[in-house]
């Protein structure tokens, strides 16, 4: 059995929840409440010395870092398109995983955290980096249906969460037509699950 | 034939040069002079829209992002320990590739760029993040000979360059005994090549 240390509003955790939903895999959830600093407790730091969620535990093995967890799940599954075996196709996925961890994380996710959760930081700087992320992704999605090759991969799963909530950081998606199409395509995948179990208004 | 768009003093480029040296693979080098802004030329942005080195071109295929290039080269080679096939072993490598791209890059590499090259930035912040990177790596290297498992992997290759020049950013390696041992082990690998072709004093 898999256990995911998780928080609903975390886009990094949602990356893992989304892939697990698309793969149809069951798991248990343990909420780590970042608003109460639970990621800094000794018991949690023993799981992940970085003090971050998500963390996946399976059969006593602990895996941290959202990108690494995606690599783990995608390597195990029979559908090879999620993290291809061929070197060039795999490298293309790794490129966009790097954009997810860099421009998307320090741009889109940071702007959202500053606006929604009051995290300290330079909003204008994060928004500028976020626009750079949106432009990079939109240009790539003008060239093909998915970020890396002709099928969805963990590159798409890693980039989608913070793109889909970019407006939380006051970044409009309106100028990015290819991104809008790609978001709809992801939301049409069999098994797709939204970020929040229930819409905030429910 | 492989062509590497490169600059000698760039630790991100050195990651790729080091793996190529360890694998014994030949390549051509094209210097991209960051001090003259050559990474912002239209001709270079056509290769890498992020405007960063390294970029690897092989048989007309362009791969950017140092981590993605490492994944590409390691996936193609017969020595599977560089990027293992088993899901858990591969995830462990991906974890430390993420640390290389995050704490090491925004900590150690940023502090070095501020001190050596006059890049704008908050030195104290970068140094604090750099110390966090050194601590994380040192703790992991207390548990085993290499960052991920019992053999060297691209995780080691991705973290080593900016660790080895941490003192350029005024971060002492003296407190980190496991890191010092690991650096010596990397420097003892057959085919190891230093960052600079000739020592600066030569």
Biggest interchain interface, per-side counts? A-B, 31 and 31 residues
Output the CATH topology of the largest domain in chain A: Glutathione S-transferase Yfyf (Class Pi), Chain A, domain 2
Q: Whole-Å distance between the termini of chain A? A: 31 Å
Question: What is the number of helices of chain A?
Answer: 7
The CATH architecture of the largest domain in chain A is Up-down Bundle
* Mean pLDDT metric of chain A: 96
**Class computed from helices, strands and strand pairing of chain A:** alpha+beta
Could you describe the largest sheet of chain A, including whether it forms a barrel? 4 strands, mixed
Poorly predicted ranges of chain A (pLDDT <50, ≥5 residues)? none
Strand-residue proportion of chain A: 5-15%
Oligomer: homodimer
H and E order of chain A? EHEHEEHHHHH
CATH class descriptor of the largest domain in chain A: Mainly Alpha
Helix content of chain A: 40-55%
Global Rg of chain A? 16 Å
Question: So what's the overall shape of chain A?
Answer: globular
Tally of structural domains of chain A:
2
Strand order of the main beta sheet of chain A, please? 2-1-3-4
